[in-house]
């Protein structure tokens, strides 16, 4: 059959084969050349950050995770920021004072300007507030009982006016990032101008990579590092390996296990601070009145079965503390209300006193994968601990994108305990208490309270605290709110994780703050 | 050995020496097949037997935690495979997880085998629109982003064992169907089919009483190879978070849970993975060897 | 020829439309709400309802589908929720990475499998060939995420010589490509061996041998070039299949291709992005397959298009 093939056919075939080979090779080379730079490792004068979540935008209107705060603030700034001791520090403002119960007076610094040199106007602040208020599903809305209005006084001074006293406004305003009014929209901004120490020069949506260049005209003095590369590395294992090998210079919000793995490596340094986030095994407060969990004594009994010390010290590798109050101890205005004790014998007695014997109680524990570091191990350990006092637990783990929020609202299925983390971006206890425990019966009608927690005493006290202008009196009421919440046993167990960050030795002056962020402008590179 | 063969040589009425016989292609091929079958059987048994007998072996309970002995390396304190992040015996967990993984694999292959056999046989025998529908379905599935579709379906129906089994079965039926179809196409033209039809047997009777029994043996060999793929597919789904719900600790789940400890506790990832590899290699070799062996005996019947 | 292409393209368009429709319905039936992924964790029911309206998710699935089809025919695939950018562009940003990985993997497969297959053909059914065969089967039997993690542990942790994630340098391509190629070598090398054995034992080669042509030329010149077509076709088909996503390997190595994109899109229930990914990858895979089928008759004159061949 082959022999009858004509000569021309054979030539064309062979040519075709060759052409194919050449074309394939060329395509490969050009494809590759388009995708990657020729060099390996970070370029000189550059720092590479490895974030575990994608920095979709450089804005915080909708969502905010800790690492993003660092990068967002390197580009855009607010009037204040939450400082290292979790109190507000003025940034774009040089004056931020409560001048009457419902009025704050603010003055912009006279030396600030955007990275293109244009000045910051009062209008930019008022527009920013409007845009944050308009955005749907905003994260900050829950912390703002009402949005203040801006009333200009002169070209640098203005007042922030509210209907009712808003004593924590200086904390809250730290989350309102300022950008030129004309460019602001009620959505997250993808690019644009800011006053911060860095400007975005390139971004690749596809890979979640951002390149920040030093803003040489930064009003507070240009930062040390010429260029910052932000990479999105979702898998924790990849981040750890990347830091070890030098592909990444800095990874933040790492798990206790990753910290353990990196501990003792000569080229890696680890920073730890006590965090502001609180992670809870929260009870379902939408249970019918006759359900055991509707009784505070049963909730307390179950708490006694959980060995918080073991969970914190062993499973979470000592990088968390059991909570001693309803919010993280680090927050301003938080007080110690009690402690989680481990006493399974008493737990059993208390349950029996309520008529609950071995095997009578079966609970469902729900959580979403990755809700906090070591989540799965904690949940599996809790199953065993409750099993020891004769309480059965079924685990239901939701993958990202699943319908856990429907479950939380009780619309998709019944549950008893929720593994949940609550971020506290404002540094003060009061707004967090308001956000978590300030659920009202009206809000509960649409199931918009925190797992059904509605407590009239707490509501009354919160109202009182917000209306109180005298700081000492306000603190007294805030402390009382916390005690009332604690005594209602909302969580089976709660803990405050440390914020942990690891970086390579060549990077200097990484000062991790309790908010789990750091000032990118201060970071340097070893010569 | 050699001495005995030499003494036997004169008795053979042939110039062909035993050495030549030994080196002949056919003998070598069947020997290769034998080697594969033996190695495959040993490897498969090495995994399947302990998994099947897990409950009888003197092992700690796979769910029993001991927070004081977390992440012990292999061969410490009687833990052959070491312990995991909660101090559970890894060997017990691997064997336990294996029961689920293998069960899912076997069930999925049975289901896909039945679907594939029925659809393929119908397409090959009846032709026409039946063939068109089945063939287009096969093609469509070939061009689909399979894994993504599987993830979607698991998200839709929930990660229970029956759902995952069904999903894997659906992923695998085309292979069986295509093979069955091509074999039925050949078989259909044989005289015995004509004979059966002439005797007045209805189509369904011819197909299922006469044709299918003739192709089922070949198909069953492919099914063995599919079992290996099913185990791999299940572990990939578990790895991507779409494995059977906890407390089932399937192999993929063990590996993805252990991945976070990869730089300090290598055994959490390496050992469960090795067990998967042993089983899959074993099953693959077994399937391969059996296929080669059949090819050797039945001339011309190529898959 | 033209009729054939038109017919094939028509069929492909139908397959893609069916696929995308299935995906469209499936994702909307699956539990989970894009609004919750889009909004803050403490968003109220009212907020979520507003977001759903904003995203065009408030109507029935049927009305959404009609809108979607209308947009599809004008070339609009919607805006990705999580990237807040046109879904089609987001996918196109990622496609080159997947193509690069797939090409590298296919070339690596060829480089290993061709010599190996030839070697196996020349030692057909010997103990050593069986050994090599078992090794390739073992490579094929490894779960890709496991072999990926193992490679990563050895080459990025123990001997940190290769990057572990992403594609910032050329060397980042090595480990993912090896991981993908491991799965393919068994298949391709066996195909090479089978083709070579049938060519080496065919009459024309015996004639050539009788003409005194050297063994080396017989193997590398005659037998190999006649085995090339099926092998190239198989490699092309593997390439086409990889365009549909090397999902697991991309996730393990944080490779910024469409496979890891689709996993993320699923996690955020990013409907437009899921649809765009499925559409683009399915279309690419089908086109590459079509191209292979079109080239086949040019390479092998015995094959004529449009005539059914048992494939």
Task: Describe the protein.
The complex is a heterotrimer of chains A (527), B (303) and C (311). Chain A has 527 residues and is α+β, with helices and mostly antiparallel strands. Chain A is built from 15 helices and 22 strands. Chain A has helices spanning 7-35, 66-75, 122-134, 169-172, 236-245, 256-262, 296-304, 308-315, 344-353, 375-388, 404-408, 429-437, 441-445, 456-467, 471-487, and strands at 46-51, 77-78, 80-82, 88-90, 93-100, 103-108, 149-152, 157-161, 177-178, 198-204, 209-214, 227-232, 250-251, 268-274, 278-283, 320-322, 362-368, 392-398, 417-422, 491-504, 507-508, 524-525. Residues 1-11 and 28-40 of chain A have low confidence and may be disordered. Chain B starts with a helix and ends in a 6-residue tail after the last helix. By secondary structure, chain B is mainly alpha-helical. Chain B contains 11 helices and no strands. Chain B is flat and about 75 Å long. By secondary structure, chain C is mainly α. Chain C has a domain at 95-269: MetI-like fold, CATH 1.10.3720. In chain C, helix 5 packs antiparallel against helix 6 (127-140), helix 5 runs parallel beside helix 13 and helix 12 runs antiparallel to helix 13 (271-299). Chain C is flat. Residues 307-311 of chain C have low confidence and may be disordered. Chains A and C meet through helix 1 and helix 5 of A and helix 2, helix 3, helix 5, helix 7 and helix 10 of C. Chain B: Pfam families: BPD_transp_1. Chain B: One of its GO terms (cellular component) is plasma membrane. Chain B: It is a multi-pass membrane protein. Chain B: It comes from Prauserella cavernicola. Chain B: Residues 98-287 form the ABC transmembrane type-1 domain. Chain C: InterPro entries: BPD_transp_1_N, MetI-like, MetI-like_sf.
């Amino acid at each position: 059959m082959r022999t009858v093939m004509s000569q021309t056919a054979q030539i064309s075939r062979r040519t075709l084969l060759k052409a194919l080979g050449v074309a394939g090779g060329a395509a490969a080379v050009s494809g590759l050349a388009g995708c990657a730079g020729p060099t390996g490792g970070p370029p000189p004068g550059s720092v590479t950050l490895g974030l575990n979540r994608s920095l979709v935008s450089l804005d915080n209107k909708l969502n905010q995770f800790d690492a993003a705060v660092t990068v967002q603030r390197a580009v855009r700034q607010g009037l204040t920021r939450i400082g290292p001791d979790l109190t507000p520090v003025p940034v774009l403002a040089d004056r931020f004072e409560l001048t009457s119960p419902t009025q704050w007076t603010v003055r912009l610094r006279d030396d600030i300007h955007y990275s293109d040199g244009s000045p910051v106007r009062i209008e930019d602040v008022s527009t920013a507030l409007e845009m944050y208020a308009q955005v749907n599903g905003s994260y900050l809305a829950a912390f703002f009982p009402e949005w203040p209005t801006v009333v200009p006084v002169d070209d640098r001074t203005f007042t922030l006016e509210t209907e009712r006293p808003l004593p924590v406004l200086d904390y809250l305003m730290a989350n309102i990032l300022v950008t030129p009014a004309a460019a602001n929209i009620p959505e997250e901004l993808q690019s644009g101008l800011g006053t911060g120490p860095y400007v975005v020069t390139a971004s690749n949506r596809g890979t979640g990579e951002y390149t920040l260049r030093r803003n040489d005209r930064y009003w507070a003095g240009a930062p040390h590092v010429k260029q910052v590369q932000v990479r999105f590395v979702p898998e924790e294992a990849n981040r750890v390996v990347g830091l070890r090998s030098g592909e990444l210079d800095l990874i933040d919000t790492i798990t206790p296990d990753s910290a353990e793995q990196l501990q003792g490596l000569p080229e890696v340094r680890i920073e730890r601070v006590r965090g502001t986030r609180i992670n809870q095994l929260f009870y379902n407060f939408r249970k019918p009145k006759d359900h055991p969990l509707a009784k505070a004594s049963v909730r307390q009994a179950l708490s006694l079965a959980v060995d918080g010390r073991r969970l914190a010290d062993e499973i979470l590798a000592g990088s968390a503390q059991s909570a001693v109050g309803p919010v993280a101890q680090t927050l301003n205005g938080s007080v110690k209300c009690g402690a989680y004790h481990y006493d399974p014998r008493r737990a059993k007695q208390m349950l029996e006193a309520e008529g609950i014997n071995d095997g009578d109680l079966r609970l469902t524990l729900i959580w979403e994968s990755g809700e906090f570091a070591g989540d799965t191990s904690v949940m599996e350990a809790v199953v065993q601990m409750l099993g020891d006092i004769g309480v059965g637990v079924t685990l239901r783990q939701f993958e990202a994108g699943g319908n856990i929020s429907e479950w939380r609202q009780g619309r998709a299925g019944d549950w008893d305990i929720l593994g949940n983390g609550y971020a506290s971006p404002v540094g003060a206890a009061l707004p967090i208490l308001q956000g978590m425990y300030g659920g009202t019966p009206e809000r509960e009608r649409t199931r918009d309270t925190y797992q059904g927690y509605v407590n009239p005493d707490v509501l009354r006290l919160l109202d009182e605290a917000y209306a109180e202008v005298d700081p000492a009196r306000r603190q007294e009421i805030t402390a009382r709110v916390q005690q009332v919440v604690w005594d209602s046993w909302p969580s089976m167990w709660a803990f405050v994780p440390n914020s942990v960050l690891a970086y390579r030795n060549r990077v200097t002056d990484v000062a991790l703050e309790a908010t789990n962020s750091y000032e990118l402008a201060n970071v340097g590179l070893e010569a | 050995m050699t001495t005995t063969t030499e003494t036997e040589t004169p008795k053979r009425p042939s110039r062909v020496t035993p050495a030549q016989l030994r080196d002949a292609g056919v003998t070598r091929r069947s020997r290769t097949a034998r080697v594969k079958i033996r190695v495959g059987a040993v490897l498969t048994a090495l995994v399947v037997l302990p998994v099947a007998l897990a409950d009888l072996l003197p092992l700690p309970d796979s769910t029993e935690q001991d927070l004081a002995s977390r992440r012990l390396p292999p061969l410490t304190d009687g833990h052959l495979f070491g312990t995991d992040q909660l101090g559970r015996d890894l060997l017990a967990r691997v064997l336990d997880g294996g029961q689920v993984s293998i069960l899912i694999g076997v069930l999925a292959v049975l289901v896909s085998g039945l679907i594939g056999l029925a659809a393929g046989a119908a397409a090959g025998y009846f032709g026409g629109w039946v063939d068109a529908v089945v063939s287009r379905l096969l093609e469509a599935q070939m061009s689909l982003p399979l894994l993504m579709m599987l993830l979607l379906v698991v998200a839709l129906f929930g990660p229970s064992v029956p759902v995952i089994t069904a999903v894997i079965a659906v992923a695998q039926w085309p292979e069986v169907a295509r093979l069955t179809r091509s074999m039925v196409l050949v078989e259909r033209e044989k005289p015995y089919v004509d004979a059966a039809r002439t005797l007045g047997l209805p189509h369904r009777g011819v197909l299922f009483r006469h044709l299918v029994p003739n192709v089922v043996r070949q198909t069953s060999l492919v099914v063995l190879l599919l079992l290996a793929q099913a185990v791999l597919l299940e572990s990939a789904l578990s790895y991507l978070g779409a494995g059977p719900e906890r407390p089932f600790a399937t192999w993929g789940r063990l590996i993805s849970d252990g991945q976070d400890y990869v730089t300090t506790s290598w055994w959490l990832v390496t050992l469960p993975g090795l067990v998967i590899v042993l089983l899959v290699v074993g099953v693959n070799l077994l399937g391969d060897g059996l296929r080669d062996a059949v090819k050797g005996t039945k001339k011309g019947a190529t898959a | 020829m033209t009729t054939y292409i038109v017919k094939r393209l028509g069929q492909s368009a139908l397959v893609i439309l069916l696929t995308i429709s299935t995906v469209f319905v499936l994702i909307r039936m699956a539990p989970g709400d894009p609004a919750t992924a889009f909004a803050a964790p403490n968003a109220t029911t009212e907020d979520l309802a507003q977001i759903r309206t904003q995203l065009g998710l408030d109507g029935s699935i049927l009305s959404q589908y009609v809108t979607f089809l209308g947009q599809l025919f004008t070339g609009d695939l919607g805006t990705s929720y999580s990237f807040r950018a046109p879904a089609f562009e987001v996918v196109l940003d990622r496609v080159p990475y997947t193509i690069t990985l797939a090409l590298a993997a296919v070339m690596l497969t060829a480089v290993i499998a061709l010599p190996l297959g030839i070697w196996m053909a020349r030692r057909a059914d010997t103990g050593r060939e069986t050994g090599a065969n078992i090794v390739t089967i073992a490579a094929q039997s490894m779960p890709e995420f496991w072999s990926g993690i193992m490679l990563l542990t050895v080459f990025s942790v123990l001997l940190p010589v290769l990057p572990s994630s992403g594609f910032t340098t050329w060397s980042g391509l090595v480990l993912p490509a090896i991981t993908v190629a491991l799965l393919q070598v068994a298949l391709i090398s066996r195909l090479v061996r089978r083709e070579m054995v049938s060519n080496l034992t065919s009459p024309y080669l015996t004639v050539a041998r009788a003409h005194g042509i050297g063994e080396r030329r017989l193997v590398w010149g005659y037998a190999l070039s006649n085995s090339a077509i099926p092998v190239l076709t198989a490699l092309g088909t593997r390439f086409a299949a990889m365009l549909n996503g090397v999902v697991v390997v991309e996730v393990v190595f944080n490779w910024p291709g469409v496979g890891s994109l689709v996993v993320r899109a699923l996690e955020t229930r990013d409907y437009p992005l899921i649809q765009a990914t499925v559409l683009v990858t399915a279309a690419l895979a089908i086109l590459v397959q079509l191209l292979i089928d079109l080239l086949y008759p040019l390479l092998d004159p015995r094959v004529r298009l449009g005539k059914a061949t048992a494939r």
